[in-house]
Amino acid sequence: MSSANIQKVPHLVRLGRFTFDRPVVLAPMSGVTDLPFRRLAASFGADMVVTEMVASESWLDGDAEMALRSAGVGLSPHVVQLAGREARWMGEAARAAEANGADIIDINMGCPARRVTTGWSGAALMRDLDHALGLIEAVVGAVSVPVTLKMRLGWDRASVNAPELARRAEAVGVAMVTVHGRTRDQFYEGRADWAAIARVREAISIPLIANGDVADFADADAILASSGADGLMIGRGACGRPWLPAAIARYFHDGECWQGPTGEALADVVIAHHRALREHYGPFKGVLAARKHLGWYIDAALASAGGTAPGDATEIATLRRDILRATDATTIEAGVGALLGLIEASGRAAASLHAATDRSIRAGRAA
Ligand SMILES: Cc1cc2nc3c(=O)[nH]c(=O)nc-3n(C[C@H](O)[C@H](O)[C@H](O)COP(=O)(O)O)c2cc1C
User: Fold this and answer.
1) Of 90, 115, 195, 206, which has the highest C-beta tally within 10 A?
2) Domain 3-254 CATH superfamily
3) How far out from the chain centre does Cα 282 lie?
4) Which of 109, 148, 180, 186 to mutate to test the pocket of ligand 1 (most atoms within 8 A of CB)?
């Protein structure tokens, strides 16, 4: 156990019938955290996983994509994130989500996308806190399960009102707040400001989750230390590494720095994910959905190999291109197995080449 971890005392967060110790949450990401991805992250041991944003009004209108997004069979807790601008639809959607098995309802007040904010949903709600509060009250009043709220620091640097929104949300019954340490006008630019999240910590006594730019164990320690949050949320860091929230949860609990599956175990994960996507979306849309994940897995494997032998670069690039163009499941699966094996072997070869070069340089200096 590392010395940093020996000092870590249990830090319990209670949400309805669920109790977590410094929860590590997979962030809601539209186009990414569909049911197959959430199941995968949860199967590794993420404490909580959150649906893609579900547009409340469209869902209630019968939109098939929103219905698919809201699904959570087999997940516990099943957290549904709702977006919208009208209290009435948000309340009704929350009621429908609870009736469909949601254990927790999360409200989106952080999405920066123009098509969302121009409809006065997502982060735009931070520009009118009275309106935002009406929406929150409608959701809290509609359900018996816990309601959580996800926000940014504010609309822009001149209006950092996350502490005020969080305080008012707590007063009307919100059970937990997540803050992404950027303002809306930053979109995803620059670095998330973890210390600014501490202003929210001072404003509320309900659990606080900090979010933004967590990619490894050191970031996990740093975001909790800077923000004083009770847990953290990981988004992009989990793309190509669905085990990352679980790895960080494990690190918090026993100090182990698990780097995720390698070798055949990694290929099995990628292939199972690919199959689950085809099943979830059907073969045509499933292939398209799988491509971005396959690309992320390959990039993550390359990063984790820490470099490849120069002679392998062309073969790696060709295999990668062929996998991402293929539509046939057998070709994709065979290609994934071969490419991940090649990347690992090439990474080991590159590392021993570097070590041998270092030894000969040192020997040359000593002579
Ligand atoms: C592709 C993508 C889609 C996202 N979709 C949502 C969403 O549906 N709801 C939401 O609240 N945040 C959404 N976010 C924001 C993330 O939940 C998270 O707050 C943000 O990415 C910062 O965390 P990270 O640095 O760990 O990625 C999305 C982010 C990305 C990159």
Assistant:
1) 90
2) Aldolase class I (3.20.20.70)
3) 24
4) 180
Cβ pair 83, 66 in contact under 8 A = no
> What is the percentage of the chain residues whose pLDDT exceeds 70?
97
Report the C-alpha gap between 283 and 263 in whole angstroms: 27
Residue 216's region, left for phi above 0, alpha for psi from -120 to 50, else beta, is beta
d(CA 162, CA 200): 6
Any ligand 1 atom below 6 A from CB of 53: yes
Alpha-carbon torsion (338, 339, 342, 348), positive or negative: negative
Distance 27 CA to ligand 1 centre (A): 6
Q: Return residue ranges of the chain for CATH 3.20.20.70.
A: 3-254
pTM exceeds 0.90: yes
Percent of the chain at pLDDT above 90?
87
Map residue 1 onto helix, strand or coil: coil
CA distance 205 to 95: 26
Catalytic site positions: 111
Q: What is the pLDDT of residue 281?
A: 97
Please answer whether residues 244 and 217 qualify as being in contact, where contact means their C-beta atoms are separated by less than 8 angstroms: no
What integer pLDDT is reported at residue 367 of this predicted model? 60
The C-alpha torsion from 78 through 166 and 212 to 20, rounded to 10°, is -40
152 Cβ below 6 A of ligand 1: no
Q: Would residue 303 be called left, alpha or beta, if left means φ above 0 and alpha means ψ between -120 and 50 degrees?
A: alpha
